[in-house]
């Protein structure tokens, strides 16, 4: 079925995907511009003859095409995981999301067209939906009103992929990611809390009042879901991915991290139920379309959090 | 209320909007990169002291900011009508829609943020919806699956505007245009048929089998609708604009143009019910949200076609 090209291969999801594909005996070419991804996260695969890495900015179709030509075997699957993962940074400077989240999609699609790569697997986001309050969010809901530049550029990417399906692209999957946790962690609320407590073990400052409730999926379950969806029939498949529960509050996360890392710390909450511009306070995410196809996550939000907190504490403070 | 800045001011809609605003006594600064717009279409306004034109590529926020600084009075309203209007060209080369339809929106928004312009009025499109078959399309429908790069880049633009509302933009209107007809015509099915018949009065070749049915709005009604929506309450207003009827077929258009321009011509139809990649064969467009606010078009699809065919025949063949 050809080589698996992972764009954004040195990021959190890319590294976990590479590990899983290599374990299955597949060949993997990871590319990343290393703007946020880190080359050393892939070091564990360097001795594997089925693995290669190139530093590539996927916003340049020419650069993607060059690495495809040099790969030695045809690319069967392109996994587009490249994006700016720092949502507040994208709010402060919209050019970041334009270049790293949207123009990478544009470059990848141009390269796929020229190199005739048959299958695209795209990491989209629940952020494309915006704020539906208490309404359960299924894949066909409208109107789509993303409230962050990150969400806007993920929606823009989906739109461009859909038009490509009409014109030249044989197959595409769109995975609408939830909050995904695990290691190697490079950002996110747990990572943030662990690092804050490492710096000041007596105090943890939390953005917002802690009432924001979100569902979390462990990255191991996410990878399983992506591979499951990629094997389903269909030219253009769009799926929400997430746990089946309603999630946990930021307060519960803060307390669990505190108990694990610095039990004596005082937790100081901010005001309001939004942590930052573009943050959605509450979110009811339907994954019934996906579970109807036979997939279920091994861990719910609470289990995912406990596992990820242990993993991230080990990564950051070695204990 | 300040100057009206019209981006894409030398295009079909921009020229008609400028004429109407000037007739109302407003001040207008039209900008256009003249890639498809034509400077001479604005010549009728050059003697009006309330009118000015600058050649500007709106994809450059710096260029937009420079023209705003030189304007002499604050910009109160920015009308973003700049886009690639040639849909098949955008399918052949996606970079055209990226640069002229999406990056113009991105540049305009950056300029509005820096210059603190309070109101954006944006020409979006029914092409953001994709193909819903017989289902009536209201503003909140999902899923949004545009099938042309043009529609994809209009949806991408809407997403970016919605995120800007969350972060810094005080007010925005999103007008989802139907097929709009009238003069000065620079593209579109009537213009195409008239010019073909001018070249070969004995024969008219039609893409597709002629069964595509579409609703048409005359540009005079479109301008009224935009001004009406701009005066409604609300920070972020999204409206379909169109006639209230189900539209007319391409066959009816071809026959009406033939009867007007070259009655002896034979009409030769192609195959299939799509004229080109990205063309939607049938389209049921709901404008009930707009009519509920008190707006009604003066002309239905048939009336709009008759008026526009007479206007375009006069423009192209002087009779």
Question: In terms of topology, how is this protein built?
Answer:
The structure is a homodimer of 319-residue chains.
Chain A: E1 3-7, H1 12-23, E2 28-32, E3 51-55, H2 61-69, E4 75-80, H3 87-92, H4 94-115, E5 119-125, E6 136-137, H5 149-167, E7 171-177, E8 179-181, H6 189-199, E9 203-206, E10 213-214, E11 216-218, H7 219-230, E12 236-240, E13 248-249, H8 250-261, E14 266-269, E15 284-285, H9 288-291, H10 301-317
Parallel strand pairs in A: 1-2, 1-4, 2-3, 4-5, 5-7, 6-15, 7-12, 8-11, 9-14
Antiparallel strand pairs in A: 10-13
Helix pairs in contact in A: 2-4, 4-5, 6-8, 6-10, 8-10
Named at the architecture level, the CATH assignment of the largest domain in chain A is 3-Layer(aba) Sandwich
Cα separation of the termini of chain A: 41 Å
Number of domains of chain A: 2
Contiguous low-pLDDT stretches of chain A (5 residues minimum) are: none
Per DSSP, the total helix count of chain A is 10
Q: Oligomer, anyone?
A: homodimer
On the 0 to 100 scale, the average pLDDT of chain A is: 94
Strand content of chain A: 15-25%
Silhouette of chain A: globular
Briefly note the structural class of the backbone of chain A. alpha/beta
């Amino acid at each position: 079925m050809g080589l698996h090209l992972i764009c954004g291969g040195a990021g959190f999801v890319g590294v976990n995907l590479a590990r899983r594909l290599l374990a299955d005996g597949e060949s993997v070419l990871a590319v990343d511009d290393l703007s946020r991804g880190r080359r050393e996260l892939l070091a564990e695969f360097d001795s594997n003859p089925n693995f290669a890495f190139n530093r590539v900015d996927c916003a340049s179709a020419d650069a993607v095409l060059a690495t495809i030509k040099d790969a030695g075997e045809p690319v069967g699957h392109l996994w587009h995981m490249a994006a700016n993962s720092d949502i507040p940074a994208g709010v402060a400077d919209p050019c970041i999301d334009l270049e790293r989240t949207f123009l990478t999609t544009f470059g990848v699609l141009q390269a796929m067209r020229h190199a005739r790569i048959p299958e695209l697997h795209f990491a989209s986001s629940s952020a494309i939906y915006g704020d539906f309050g208490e309404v359960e969010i299924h894949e066909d809901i409208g109107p789509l009103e993303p409230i962050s530049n990150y969400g806007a550029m993920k929606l823009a990417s989906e739109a461009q992929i859909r038009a490509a399906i009409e014109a030249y692209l044989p197959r595409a999957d769109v995975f609408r990611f939830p909050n995904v946790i695990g290691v190697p962690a490079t950002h996110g609320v747990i990572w943030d809390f662990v690092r804050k407590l490492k710096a000041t073990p007596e105090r943890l400052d939390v953005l917002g009042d802690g009432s924001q409730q979100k569902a979390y999926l462990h990255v191991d379950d996410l990878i399983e879901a992506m591979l499951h969806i990629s094997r389903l029939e269909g030219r253009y498949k769009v799926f929400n991915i997430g746990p089946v529960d309603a999630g946990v509050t930021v307060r519960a996360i803060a307390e669990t991290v505190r108990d694990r890392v610095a039990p004596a710390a005082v937790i100081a909450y901010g005001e309001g139920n939004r942590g930052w511009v573009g943050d959605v306070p509450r979110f009811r995410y339907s994954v019934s379309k996906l579970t109807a196809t036979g997939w279920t996550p091994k861990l719910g939000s609470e289990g995912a959090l406990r596992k990820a907190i242990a993993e991230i504490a080990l990564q950051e403070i070695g204990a």
